[in-house]
Amino acid sequence: MASANRLSFPVVAAFGSTAAPIAAIGLVMGVYLPRFFTGHIGLSLGAVGAAFGIVRLLDLAVDPLLGMGMDRTRLKLGRYRPWLILGAPVTMLATYMLFMASPGISLGYLITWLLILYLGVSILTLSQAAWGASLATDYHDRSRVYGVIQAVGVLGSVMILLLPLFLAKTPMGAHGGVAAMGWFLIAAIPLTVALCATITPERVAPEVESQERIGLKDYWALLSRPEMIRLVFADFVIALGPGTTAALYLFFFHDARHYTAPQTSILLLFYIGAGLVGSMFWGFLAQRIGKHRALMASSVAYAVAQSMLMIIPPATMSLAIPGMFGVGFVAAGFVPIVRAMVADVADEVRLETGKERAGLLYALVTTTQKIGGAITVTVSYAVLQFVGYNPAEGAVNTPEAIRGLELCYVFAPIILVFFGGAAFIGWKLDAGRHAEVRRQLDIRDGLAAEADLLATASGVSLGRPPANQA
Predict the structure, then answer these.
(1) 403: which of 44, 89, 379, 459 lies 20 to 30 Å off by Cα?
(2) CA nearest 34: which of 21, 25, 43, 23?
């Protein structure tokens, strides 16, 4: 059933446009940059793995602090719009310094600019996610909105994947086309942020007046909510699954499955491109059977699709293409569904406390992804180094090293994603419960708006309705 609050597609598309460069950066950072700094720049496998791990660990406190700052922002531009605008130049500068790096840079250089890049991406990602929670208020419309955001992100990833293919025989295509990817991102970030910031409306929900200052114990109370415990745990292990495959992708398909460099780019293109269809499908399914059921179904489907990769004979593009398309299709449902579920929890929190905490709630789940990213790169690279795998171009690896690579790439993600799906057995915040939460919020927001109008007209403050007003 269509809701009166359903957003038009042009607004959703404009809002989701920033997902294109954000997703593209995430793809390049997970797949291309580690190999770029080991194979071209000349840093060791252990050093690059350690750099990504150190940066992720140092970056853990950033998202909660950003979330607190966003939730407390009160500007004419809005609550989240100013942060989105701020994130653009930070991300652009760090992109230039990393993607245009030359051999001879130090480990300190890599760590410093990775930190700045992660900061910029965190600002962009978190502001967009929290803004989306206030933009789309209907339970089912959120599945659609976050599905569109995911689809736009897929388009950005596909576009950046095409660059190495088109530029393979040109100077810009050298070293995997990393420099060309950097210029693409530097151009796309300001364009999409401007489109989002100028077209998308921002609804700043009224808050219950309170003299009490919110402290860290209040934020810990949010994290300890049963719904958030499940979401944080699920987001963590699900991030570990595809995150492991991203860090090992080029090694696995080139060295273990014997595909050429152009073929690995084509396979990755089908994997990412499948997300365009998959994100829309899982968003549609979530509207029909509920978000938590759709997420459980996608986790089971992921295990089946990922297992098929080991059955496909090496260097067989005719089978590898549908195999990678299948994995990408089922994996596309993870992020948008979890993000939409966090928005539902944010509504419930605002009903109970009278305060907007979407920024911090999204910070909690984005922090788990950072932890997952630190673990996947650091641990998987350490395991590969332990089994004797050599990532250098032209290196010959032992069968034992290749077997260790295969086990890390295929089977570890299956187990992790399975646990993520199981976390939602018995989930309570479904469409019926959320409809009641929104009904009470709409009543209270209406009363608050009337009180503001009367106060403006009379010059006498009438106060706000209590947090539990329904």
Answers:
(1) 44
(2) 43
CA distance 376 to 470: 46
**CA neighbours closer than 13 Å in the CB half-sphere of residue 150:** 32
What is the rounded distance in angstroms from the CA atom of residue 61 to the CA atom of residue 69? 13
Query: Global pTM?
Result: 0.71
What would the 3-class secondary structure string for 65-132 be? Answer: HHHHHHHHCCECCECCHHHHHHHHHHHHHHHHHHHCCCCCCCHHHHHHHHHHHHHHHHHHHHHHHHHH
Which parts of 252-290 fold into alpha helices (H)?
A: 261-289
The greatest distance separating any two alpha carbons of the chain, rounded to the nearest whole angstrom, comes to 82
In Å, how far are 20, 194, 199, 406 from 13, measured between CA atoms?
A: 11, 13, 10, 38
Q: Amino acid identity, residue 393?
A: E
Task: Give me 84's structure tokens.
Answer: 């989105």
Q: For the chain, how far is it from start to end, CA to CA, in angstroms?
A: 24
CB 70 within 8 A of CB 127: yes
φ/ψ of 78, rounded to 5, equals 130, -170
Distance of CA 61 to the CA centre of its chain: 17
Amino acid symbol at 30 = G
Under DSSP, the state recorded for 426 is T
Q: Is the Cα torsion angle 422, 426, 432, 437 positive or negative in sign?
A: negative
Contacts of 327 (CB under 8 A, 6+ apart): 271, 274, 302, 305, 306, 308, 309
* Phi, psi of 395, rounded to the nearest 5 degrees: -70, 150
- pLDDT per 10-residue tile (average), the chain, 470 residues: 66 90 86 80 79 78 83 83 95 93 86 92 90 82 84 86 72 68 93 93 61 59 82 85 81 86 84 86 90 93 90 91 93 88 89 82 79 72 79 76 84 88 90 89 77 59 51
Q: Which residues pair with 75 in a beta bridge?
A: 78
Q: Are 16 and 148 in contact (CB under 8 A)?
A: yes
- Rounded CA separation 450/174 (Å): 62
Question: Could you tell me which residues are beta bridge partners of residue 78?
Answer: 75
**Over the Cα atoms of the chain, what is R_g?**
23
